[in-house]
């Protein structure tokens, strides 16, 4: 019954809406027709128009947003943030995010501590789409568990949202590396890497001197792979050494591959002899990905390895097999 009702609401406007979304409304006639239609109160139409915003960009998206604003969707979404229904709160936050309504981050941010998990996660994603610097602090605070089951949002959701914010959030994100909550520190480190906050490179380096949490160390290694410099290679080599959790070690190997250069090639070549087969294999794969310098180092290690050295031979053989596969598929290194 609901599907039939929704279809009756949407069908009369579908053609004009799709014309706008496809960018074919050159004379603006579809927009004008839709502006003359009383759409307020038609929830199915609101949802239909908002859903299209996730699929279109540029001028068509701006036209749809203008249409939604003229028909009061922004106002209703803003009111919906305070609804008693968690589902409506979530939908309202999502609509505001998709419409990129300027200045609404402060209105959406309180939902990060919503008792409804879906509303809280949706708010985080909406704040990422709004891209307002003011959202950085609330997003970082939403990672740590709070009272009555609030907070503790998925780290990947918050990291993704933070990464969409502007460079003006770098100091706020960097300061979170000093949080007493390890998950918050890990999220901050990953966000620094993904968002390329190079100004926080020293903060990452300082954290390495005191950090003991293995998840945080893995996140710092990943970040240094993106914003680090050649002089970070010794720190990454230390993180790749036995004694750390495998997750940390593998993150450090990937970071060495990201940094590239002669120093990374030398470090990765040394890791081919690691007793952890996964570390050795990833080092071999990384050398292949580094093209000529890395492949030359792989060949050199393979040629000088004795038949009795099963560990190193296994890693170099893995790398050689990767080379053969890529040659057969017509692809080279990175």
Q: What is the chain-wise order of helices and strands?
A: HHHHHHHHHHHHHHHHHHHH
Which spans of ≥5 residues are poorly predicted at pLDDT below 50? none
Q: Provide the residue-averaged pLDDT.
A: 91
Main beta sheet, described? none
Q: Taking Cα atoms only, what radius of gyration do you get, to the nearest Å?
A: 26 Å
The amount of beta strand, in percent, is: under 5%
Global geometry? elongated
- Helical run tally: 20
Protein architecture, described:
- The structure is a single chain.
- By secondary structure, the protein is mostly helical.
- Helices cover 68% and strands 0% of the residues.
- The radius of gyration is 26 Å and the shape is elongated.
In brief:
By secondary structure, the protein is an all-alpha fold. It contains 20 helices and no strands.
Looking at this protein, list some descriptive labels.
mainly alpha, 68% helix, 334 residues
Topology of helices and strands:
Blueprint: H1 2-21, H2 29-35, H3 43-53, H4 58-70, H5 73-80, H6 86-99, H7 105-108, H8 117-130, H9 136-141, H10 155-164, H11 170-175, H12 182-195, H13 201-208, H14 214-227, H15 233-239, H16 246-259, H17 261-270, H18 277-289, H19 291-304, H20 310-329
């Amino acid at each position: 019954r609901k599907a039939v009702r929704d279809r009756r609401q949407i069908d009369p406007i579908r053609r004009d809406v799709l014309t706008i979304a496809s960018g074919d409304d050159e004379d603006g006639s579809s927009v004008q027709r839709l502006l003359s239609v009383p759409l307020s109160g038609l929830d199915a139409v609101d949802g239909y128009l908002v859903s299209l915003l996730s699929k279109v960009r540029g001028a068509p998206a701006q036209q749809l947003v203008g249409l939604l604003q003229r028909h009061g969707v922004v106002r209703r979404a803003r009111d919906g943030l305070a609804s008693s229904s968690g589902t409506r709160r979530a939908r309202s936050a999502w609509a505001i995010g998709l419409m990129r309504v300027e200045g609404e981050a402060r209105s959406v941010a309180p939902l990060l501590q919503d008792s409804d998990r879906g509303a809280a996660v949706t708010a985080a994603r909406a704040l990422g789409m709004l891209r307002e610097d003011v959202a950085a602090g609330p997003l970082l605070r939403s990672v740590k568990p709070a009272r009555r089951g609030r907070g503790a949002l998925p780290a990947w959701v918050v990291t993704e949202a933070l990464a969409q914010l502007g460079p003006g959030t770098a100091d706020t994100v960097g300061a979170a590396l000093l949080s007493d909550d390890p998950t918050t520190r890990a999220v901050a480190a990953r966000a620094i890497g993904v968002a390329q906050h190079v100004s926080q490179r020293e903060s990452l380096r300082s954290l390495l001197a005191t950090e003991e949490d293995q998840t945080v160390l893995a996140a710092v290694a990943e970040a240094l792979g993106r914003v680090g410099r050649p002089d970070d290679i010794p720190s990454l080599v230390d993180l790749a050494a036995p004694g750390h959790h495998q997750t940390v070690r593998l993150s450090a190997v990937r970071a060495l591959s990201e940094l590239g250069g002669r120093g990374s090639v030398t470090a990765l070549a040394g890791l081919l002899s690691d007793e952890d087969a996964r570390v050795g294999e990833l080092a071999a794969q990384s050398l292949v990905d580094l093209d000529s310098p890395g492949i030359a180092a792989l060949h050199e290690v393979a040629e000088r390895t004795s038949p009795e050295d099963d560990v190193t031979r296994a890693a170099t053989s893995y790398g050689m097999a990767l080379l053969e596969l890529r040659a057969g598929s017509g692809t080279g290194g990175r």
